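Human: You know discrete backbone vocabularies at least as well as I do. Show me how you would write down a chain together with its backbone fold. No explanation is needed for now; the record alone will do.

Assistant:
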Amino acid sequence: DIDLVISTVALKPEGSVPVVRVSPFLNQQDIKAISRYAVRKSQNQSQVSLILSDFIEPDLVFLDLEAISQEQVIAFLAARLEAKGVVSEDYLAGVFARESLSSTAVGRGVAIPHTFQEHVHVSRVAVARLRNPIRWGAEEVDLVFLLALKFNREEKTWQMFRSFYRMLDNPQFLSRLRKSENASQFVETISGRREE
């Protein structure tokens, strides 16, 4: 699936795939043109919510977790996933190995640690909203989504990652998650059943 074509040369649109023409040296006007498309595309928050809500359950959402390091948060969430039979005992080591390659902080106070699917029995996401932000690579993070993903098709994995990036583009949505009073409310916000 192709959502958008960005090109430095004039292209004739093929079918329903939009084309955004940008200058060879990306400038503010180009970024705005791309952003306008992204906003239109992400306005349908239900698509994001549908993907995320399939894998987040209230008993895997931990609000106001007190932690002093990313390792502590990852270990806590991984233990909860392992206790539910979602991941193997090697999962935690896999997440730490992946994190050592590069930080999984993705901006706006969010991190999405993850590892390869061979350590995962069933797809789930464990969530920690931290009482106080902690250092995560070069960023401060207070929302952690520990991904345990096992999909038959790579496309599903990329859909999940795209859903996180769309969520990051919606500050109001992130604000509602941060204001959720309990795990059920958090999941309702993710699923689109709770609006402020």
Q: What stands out?
A: The mean pLDDT is 83. DSSP finds seven helices and seven strands in the chain. Helices lie at 28-42, 45-53, 70-83, 91-101, 154-168, 171-179, 183-191.
